[in-house]
Amino acid sequence: MTVTKKTRLVVIGNGMAGIRTLEELLKLAPDLYDITVFGAEPYGNYNRILLSPVLAGEMTIKDIMLNDVDWYAQNGITLHLNKKVTQIDRMRRKVVAADGSEADYDRLLLATGSNPFMLPVPGKSLPGVVSYRDIKDTGEMIEAASRYRHAVVIGGGLLGLEAANGLKLRGMDVTVVHLMPWLMERQLDRTAAGLLQQSLEAKGLKFLLEKQTAELIAGESGRVCAIKLKPALSNAEGDGETLPADLVVMAVGIRPNTGLAEAAGLHCDRGVVVNDTLQTYDPRIYAVGECVSHRGISYGLVAPLFEQAKVCANHLAQLGISRYTGSVTSTKLKVTGIDLFSAGDFTGGEGVEEIVLSDPAAGVYKKLVVKDDKIVGSVLYGDTADGSWYFQLLRDGQNIRESRDRLMSGQSHLGNSGHQGQSNAASMPDDMEVCGCNGVCKGTIVKAIKEKGLFTLNDVRKHTKASASCGSCTGLVEQILASTIGGAYQPADVSRKPVCSCTDYTHEEIRKAIIERKLKSIPEAMSFFEWRNVNGCASCRPALNYYLLCAWPHDYQDDPQSRFINERAHANIQKDGTYSVVPRIYGGITTPAQLKRIAEVAEKYAVPTVKVTGGQRIDLLGVKKEDLPKVWADLDMPSGFAYGKSTRTVKTCVGSEWCRFGVQDSTNMGIVLEKALDRMWAPHKVKLAVSGCPRNCAEATIKDVGIVGVDSGWEIYVAGNGGIKAEVSLFLVKVKSAEEVMEYASAFIQLYREEARYLDRTVHWVQRVGMDYVKKRIVEDAAGRKVLYERLKDALRDEKDPWQERVRGMETREYAPIKFHSLNAH
Amino acid sequence: MSEWKKVCALEEIPRLGSRVVQTGKGDVAVFRSGSDEVFALRDQCPHKGGPLSQGIVFDRKVTCPLHGLTVQLDSGEAVAPDKGCTHRYRARVDKGEVYLNLS
Ligand code: SRM
Ligand SMILES: Cc1cc2nc3c(=O)[nH]c(=O)nc-3n(C[C@H](O)[C@H](O)[C@H](O)COP(=O)(O)OP(=O)(O)OC[C@H]3O[C@@H](n4cnc5c(N)ncnc54)[C@H](O)[C@@H]3O)c2cc1C
Ligand code: SF4
Ligand code: FES
């Protein structure tokens, strides 16, 4: 037997960034390395950010373990706990720990985090003076709280305030001493900080601002007993005050822990310097986490460190396809009952505008900082419901010109349905339902986040099903995540969204390559992009199928097995496994003969429910799958595509033909549009409506494309949505003739078909690319518009009616069950 | 009574697809994987009884069409973190024919 020796990877630092890197690495390349981890602390990997709830008595150490010792064993990782590495020998490629143990490496990962900064004042090493960094510090603080009365926290930043809050909850008398004129000055402006201070004072905390520590004084027992402050900065004369202090917590900042790296001669500059692949100046050595300096920045929050971990793992796994280019961070204070969110830059400056909503009586303050029509910073106090939304706009650099007047009223207040109109998670009781589809309460979500160590929206969806169905409660779930895990929560990066976990490539990259590389089948596309799973999954296959079909309308051989059942069977599956049949009734106009035929079919097949739909047509519900082809044959009507990511309905009103107000023939316009767009597949469903006058009885302004007749012509609106989250459509253009309506509407839809991500409704796509872009392509560029229109017509030219094709015998086995009792035994 | 019955030719089941077999014990879904293995499960999702035969098949898994639970074809177990299990039957391919055993 020959044993090939595996490459050896040694990790120094058993903390959040290092172990997250290992988790990512094991997903990508489980067998590549022989892994050894050194940790200076005596514990497995725990969720450091939850030390705050531990101190506050809301959680225990057991609750916050992310990877216990068994996890290392199960993954074949050699774990050295309680062993601090004291030397890296780069010549011999080995590390040496304080107790003399050694490990050889081929690759080394530095993840040593940071050290709390201790003020160089007399008395800083007295017993009773602690930092706030790890389980040991937290234990000391809890212990002190049970025996002593007076605590002083030096530093009014995030960490200091969370420490002060915890100690207060444990019954201590707490004073926060802060050097600056207001709290959390790096995350908050003066007004928000004032509100925060008020609420904390209401909880019983005391504050001394613009005060500097002169010295810490020992009592008789040798333990710290008081803190002496310097005279106020403005008057340097006289003596400063002295406060009693049995416990002093220094929370004045952290410094990247680079001692070991520097001693080994690695280039450091306020952090171990790494490039975009998280590699240090020694190509065998990588570094992640708080100890790192990337493009001159060291991060002190978990979200960016996890992004680093992901990229670093990719390179350690020798895939070499991703880069870390830096992060924008956001902050959330984890003090129960206080709602505070801050992101980006809000200090003002040249060319910067501020949009402010201030309602001190209600305890609400919101500030958005805008530069060049983009949000560059935001501070929210009291109502943080829209924090993630603003943060997303900020990170994506979205142009907000169009939506500016609506920004302050927030995203979550606009027509969201399904959770009793709630938009503020903090004020919801634990037993209140958050997710109306899956019946999940707030308490269940919080518990899962804490106990299972969840960090992302996807994790929460997987474990609790909250927001996993219609998604209307996503904003609430994000808030709950953010307030439970603080700044460690980062909304998914929408600007770079991989298709699914089978690949790291984005929708856009894949669509581009399909065309440029002339990829013409799902297996070709998957092999070109080195898909991780041979047959992909239920998310990516339908997306690829659509992208190929859109790129090669006449050459691509549709793959029914990569379609969701509704599109495969051309009928909507119901909860009992039967199907519904919705024939097309163009523009909602039917005839007595048609109605009779529908009635006869309903009787013949004993259809249990016949319903008039919200889309102006008729739904036959409860048809057995094997009867579908017969029902279609007898109906002899075209498929209504009520089951597809495709053209759904074109709703119309009676219009000028009958209505006393009608100024345009909306009914006929609707029929013409529906016929032209019939059988069209799209990234998601496409709904249109045409109204004959601005009274708008066809509800055209909540449709993907809405047309409103006016005396002098037609107004065209786009990107509306009437579903989960109602969105009013945006004005695109006004035209004179029905031909122009056809051209503009078609061109818009084709642009959406070619550029949106699979499962984007028009509204999601337009919100991302901006209405300016859409107008540029559809309104300003006449030649481009015509090309788009022609491409859509060409794509639809030989699409056949799927029902009639199946009536004629296509895919018969899809509908035919096999009867077991009539089979012969073998 | 251990009885193997011939169900259909392998070609009669689409690759990465399935066929429904109606039996005295209820519907059974017979799946064909990308590498031409066959598996049989009771055609009822452990979540709310959705017809697994109608789901999207990949690898040795199927995703339920109703609410997206994924079930392992070779064991009938739901893929973590979901829980639940659906009854599994024996199925095999022999000379291009698919056989099913319900005992
Ligand atoms: C039948 C109908 C309700 C009715 O009894 O009136 C209906 C029924 C369903 N709707 Fe709807 N929707 C119906 C009109 C609507 C409307 C109103 C409209 O079109 O004017 C809306 C809001 C408008 C919009 O889409 O912007 C609507 C918003 C939704 C949504 C949310 C879409 C969104 O982007 O927010 C879903 C879920 C989805 O598609 O993911 C949905 C999904 C569904 C599904 C397909 C659920 C499913 O996946 O099985 C239901 C299928 C039942 C069936 O088998 O027929 N239905 N649905 C209506 C069919 C219209 C038709 O003739 O085709
Ligand atoms: C109380 C508290 C609350 C926080 N709240 C939040 C929050 O709400 N949101 C947020 O995003 N972030 C928060 N943070 C910050 C967050 O915890 C850190 O950013 C994160 O833990 C850094 O990860 P890391 O792996 O770089 O460092 P660490 O998690 O500190 O891990 C480094 C590990 O390396 C070990 N080590 C160091 N040197 C050696 C050596 N020579 N040999 C062996 N082992 C060594 C250390 O003992 C440590 O265990 C909080 C931090 C604290 C302390
Ligand atoms: S028809 Fe639409 S609103 Fe009614 S239950 Fe189904 S998805 Fe929900
Ligand atoms: S019935 Fe299968 S996921 Fe709900």
Which helices and strands, and how do they pair?
The complex is a heterodimer of chains A (826) and B (103).
Chain A (H helix, E strand, L loop, with lengths): L6 E6 L3 H13 L4 E6 L6 E2 L4 H5 L9 E3 L1 H6 L3 E3 L4 E5 L4 E4 L4 E3 L2 E4 L3 E3 L12 E3 L3 H13 L2 E5 L3 H12 L3 E6 L11 H13 L3 E4 L3 E6 L5 E6 L12 E3 L2 E4 L3 E3 L2 H5 L8 E3 L10 E3 L4 E3 L7 H15 L13 E3 L7 E5 L7 E8 L4 E8 L2 E8 L5 H10 L7 H4 L25 E3 L4 E2 H11 L4 H8 L9 H12 L21 H10 L5 H7 L11 H12 L13 H5 L2 E2 L5 E3 L10 H13 L4 E4 L5 E6 L4 H8 L11 E6 L13 H12 L8 E6 L13 E6 L2 E6 L11 E6 L2 H18 L6 H8 L1 H10 L1 H15 L5 H6 L4 H4 L2 E2 L7
Parallel strand pairs in A: 1-2, 1-9, 2-5, 9-21, 11-18, 12-13, 12-18, 13-14, 20-22, 34-35, 35-36
Antiparallel strand pairs in A: 3-4, 6-7, 7-8, 10-19, 15-16, 16-17, 23-24, 24-27, 25-26, 26-27, 28-29, 30-31, 31-33, 32-33, 36-37, 37-38
Chain B lengths: L3 E6 L7 E7 L2 E7 L5 E5 L13 E3 L2 E3 L6 E3 L15 E7 L2 E5 L2
Bound molecules: siroheme (SRM), flavin-adenine dinucleotide, iron/sulfur cluster and FE2/S2 (inorganic) cluster (FES).
* Largest sheet properties of chain A: 5 strands, parallel
Distance separating the two termini of chain A: 45 Å
Mean pLDDT of chain B: 94
Radius of gyration of chain B: 13 Å
- Number of DSSP helices of chain A? 26
Uncertain ranges of chain B: none
- The chain-level structural class of chain B is mainly beta
Oligomer state equals: heterodimer
From the alpha-carbon coordinates, what is the Rg of chain A to the nearest angstrom? 32 Å
**How many strand elements of chain A?**
39
**Secondary-structure element sequence of chain B?**
EEEEEEEEE
| N→C terminal distance of chain B | 6 Å
User: Which percent band covers the strand fraction of chain B?
Assistant: 35-45%
Bound molecules: siroheme, flavin-adenine dinucleotide, iron/sulfur cluster, FE2/S2 (inorganic) cluster
Q: Which of globular, elongated, flat, extended, rod-shaped describes the shape of chain A?
A: globular
What portion of residues of chain A is helical? 25-40%
DSSP strand content of chain A: 15-25%
Helix share of residues of chain B?
Answer: under 10%
The helix count of chain B comes to 0
Main interface: chain pair and counts: A-B, 34 and 40 residues
